[in-house]
Write a structure and sequence with these properties.
By secondary structure, this protein is an alpha/beta fold. The protein has helices at residues 13-29, 45-55, 74-91, 106-113, 120-139, and strands at residues 3-9, 33-39, 60-68, 96-103. The chain has five helices and four strands; from the N terminus they run E-H-E-H-E-H-E-H-H.
Amino acid sequence: MAKFLIVEARFYDKLNDMLIEGATDALKAAGHEYEVITVPGALEIPSAISLAIDSDLYDGFVAIGVVIRGETYHFEIVAGESARGIMALTMDGAAIGNGILTVENEDQALARADKTRKNKGGEAAQAAMAMHDLAMKFTT
């Protein structure tokens, strides 16, 4: 049994709840423990995961959030930089599943967050668990 930290950037409550439900269902089904923390936005997710890595309390991480394109360039910055930060942490060996949705509109987000449709929260948890398992294979 491993312990995972779900780090959510809570902005769209209903969508986040759906993503978290998918992630927690996947972790529970695999017999893992988890904890959920909330950060102000998607840009803060990599920083929170970095701080948690340093604590040695968790075996893996699931990033949850929703970034919907708006009228300004801000979307590209948030989407790109949050993904870059998460990728940098994975390259250092962290087991992270990226469930930050970057979409054009709320309908696309709903389709991806709904666990009866695309279940991206569950997929992110599955990715985190797979990377944790791979890390265990290489360290034993």
